[in-house]
Amino acid sequence: MLQVLINGIVLGSVYALIALGLTMVFSIMRVVNFAHGQMYMLGAFVVYYLYGQFQLPFWLALPLAGLALAVVGVLFNRLFFQPVLASAKREENSMLMAVGTALLLENLALTLFGEKQRGVPPVVDGSFIFGDISEGGAILTYPNAMVAALSVTAIAALLLFVQYTRPGRALRAVAQDKEAARLQGVDVKSITTLGFAIGAALAGLAGGLLVTIYGVNSGIGSNISTKAFIMIMIGGAGVTSGAIVGGVLLGFAEAIGYDLLPGSLTYLLIFVAMIVFLVFKPNGLFGKPWG
Amino acid sequence: MTILAVLLLLPAVLGDSRYLFSVLMNCMGLSLIALGVWLTFTIGRTNICQAGFALIGGYATAIFLAHYHMNFWLALPLSALVAASAGAVIGSFILKLRGIYFSMLTISLTEAIRLAFLNGGDFTQGSRGITDLPQPFGDSVFGLYYLALALLGFGLLLTWRIHYSRVGRIFRAMRLNEDLAESFGTHVWRYRVIAFSVACGLGGLGGSYFAVFTQSIYPQSFSVEHSIYYMLFCFLGGLEFVSGGIVGAFVLTILFELLSQFQQYQTLIYGGLMIAVILLLPNGLMAMTLRRKEVRA
Amino acid sequence: MQKRSMIRAAVLAAVAPWFLLGSAHAEKILKIGVNGVMSGEAASWGLVNKYCAETTADMYNAKGGVDIGGQKYKIEVVALDDKNDPKVSVTNAEKLTSQGIKYIIGPNIDTTALAVKPVVERAHALNFPYAFAKELYKAPANASVLGMVASYQVGPIIYEYLKNKKGVKSIAFLARNESDAKNQQAEGVAAARKLGLKVVADSDSYEPGTKDFMPVMTKIIRDKPDHIVLSGVAPADAPLLNKAARDLGFKGSISTETGQDSKILAQVAGDKARGFISVGGASTPEIQSDYMKAFIAAYKKRVGEWNDEAGTKVYALELILAVLKQNPAAVNNTEAFKKTMATFSMSNPFVKGGKTRLEFTGKADFGRRSQVGVPLVVNEFTGKDFKTLFVGTIKN
């Protein structure tokens, strides 16, 4: 059982980081970023090239992955999303744009980085051993522990930033009410860009972190996106605490499910449970009603 | 309507190029499924579970044909009915969600339906799928072609009728303001379920058609990716027009075929072009015709 | 308003026909089709097929083409992405056959291969799928030739080796939850039981797209197998599965029945995949001929980087061309090809020494020769590279 707990904690902290980026973009722009998983994939490739191929220290490569994706986020926001949001008759068009960018990024990656699975040398090696697995013991590998710890650090840093800094407060204001924020003198356009950049950077960070244990290939994006959707729906779209709780819940559901049930039944039950849950609580655990 | 007429006569010109036939048959089947997505748009819901209902329709046909040796002409409408009933039951629960929540819930629903068939035991034959389905027209391509055309014609007519009837006006009122429509004494809930159920029925019909077209059905025959594509068809064609989904399906499918000579850059160019279209024509391809009419008037 | 929309329409209209332009050729051309998944998560399967065919074509074309019946043909590879979608695969097959293409390499999985079967049969073309479903190759089906060694052929050989040489007594199976992989699992379980091995897990599976294999592996390891068989795992999953098993303290051996890539294993799992047994084609240094080395060089030139998966996929086009050379009538007639196929035999150009024969096989499994007789090379991963464990042959 201890092993299930450990698996759940590691998965949960990583998932929370992924969900946080998606929910950030949603809260600011009301855009479900279908390309979130593809941004994760790009972040992973940045670390693969910088750390794995050019042998930069990991501690430098990881923030650079976040930075690179922040730049991608700014460009995407300015070039693609803001024009669409400004001119479309319906807000669903931004969803279409997100799907378009996802498709573009995935195929760009396939062309540039090839079809192969990639991996990087382990940053740390070894494991905490709590008895023999086949006898009911448990194991936590150093890489997994590192990834979980760094995820939690990144989440905490973001929460502090949003809570206590000036741009952070502006972000919250825009998320709550664009018009009111504008009246109070917030530059909504640049704050929106900032929000999108942070969302993309979080995806990049998550990708850069996880490439150290899972590796990466150019096709992993949509799977990550679907999981991130589940997480932010459980918690309530656009709510920070919701994303964290959603991520942790999904991590544990997966760890426990895979332990008790054969393969794909786990996700079937997760999906069914989520649909039933949302029917009774349409806005998730902490969400605000939103049309 | 013109499209349908052209499609009716096209075989005479095409002769026996089975490739062009199969592209067109793909377009028509996808259009039929996309019509359902379009219909859910008219009640203000972005439907990303249409692939799930296509899967239900496809499996229903496969099970009727393979396990019960039913006649295809009976299995086809029954499959649509199965999908429509499933849509009515599920819809009556999930349709109270709106906006992005509904869209994301339907993504999960597509996955849930796929996984349900994957875990269906001997009945659905799990990941092995049901294969070797009999084709109703034997070797002839014309039979299946005209079946697709007839189904598309039926689907378009049905959607058209609904859209321009009293029910259609209620749908539009609901899209603009659900609470207001309710306050005028409209049974919003009932109309929503009707619309969704018809939409799912169209998806099931399309799924059933594709099951005999490829003579097989697997859990991954229709997945989230397909659901998203059906939604894209409608967006790109234009949501203001009944034929929007059809135009989108034809344009995107044919475009993909045209790009095939670019080999590995095919999907890359496809993605780039799609973004270009969204930027240049944010309200869909059909909006071009609307603009011109507006100017003339 | 009108002007803007006109411009937009004009831009779209101007772009569209540009894509219709094809190129014209004057010399004799032999077109070979490749139909398979070349995008998305399983992209490597179809792309490697495509790259291999293109490399073979490059090598022949550099020498002025292939000589069939005194006539030089330039080889043109027409590759189409089916996205692993049976509907698209059917359209692709229609497209290829409507261009008069008689020989098509791919598709990669049961679902797509079974979907194109009627199309290929109707067009009297010949398909070389990399899918294992037996109904593709057994009579009455007559349009498909299996392009590689099937898992149910190599599985028993590996298990027997493990049982006799490594003292393995109990065995667990883990499959990717997909049609092909589940079939491989079922057949592997049956084969292992027949050999008298104790099967402690026979139906475990994981969802395609899984990245964290700790939970799945934890369950397997609790059953205490001596050996774990990974059925139908994608090259992307294999290193992660190995790593998870070793991280969890698994001491036994691990194997799979499909081709893998050493660089992927080395990058993602490194030492933790040491001892992993998989099936190779001809790319291990111990057995490759000079011709194979030239092939690898040409492949690198085209693609940029070698992929060991390609070792199992070099054979299809080479063998097709060899048969055409022997029987020029087969260029436009697959019946002639099938006739030659039954008795065809040549020395394997990819394996050094010239003693290994390359022929069509599969009689024992399909009742007739409907399989490319790829030599059955079983590899072991050393932590960096593959080393050949043994070379077997398929019962014919």
How would you explain this protein's 3D organization?
The complex is a heterotrimer of chains A (291), B (297) and C (396). Chain A has 291 residues and is an all-alpha fold. Chain A has a single domain, classed as ABC transporter involved in vitamin B12 uptake, BtuC. Chain A has eleven helices and two strands, in the order H-H-H-H-E-E-H-H-H-H-H-H-H. Chain A has a two-stranded antiparallel ribbon. In chain A, strand 1 and strand 2 form a beta hairpin. Chain A starts with a helix and ends in an 11-residue tail after the last helix. Chain B has 297 residues and is mostly helical. Chain B has one domain. Helices cover 75% and strands 0% of the residues of chain B. Chain B is built from 14 helices and no strands. The two termini of chain B are 23 Å apart. Chain C has two domains: 151 residues, Rossmann fold (3-Layer(aba) Sandwich), CATH 3.40.50; 148 residues, Response regulator (Rossmann fold). Chain C has 13 helices and 15 strands. Chain C has a five-stranded mixed β-sheet, with helices on both faces. In chain C, strands 7-6-8-9 form a four-stranded parallel β-sheet, with helices on both faces. In chain C, helix 3 packs parallel to helix 4. In chain C, 59% of the residues are buried. The N terminus of chain C is likely disordered. Classes of the chains: A mainly alpha (291), B mainly alpha (297), C alpha/beta (396). Chains in contact: A-B, A-C, B-C. Chains A and B meet through helix 3, helix 4, helix 9 and helix 11 of A and helix 5, helix 11 and helix 13 of B.
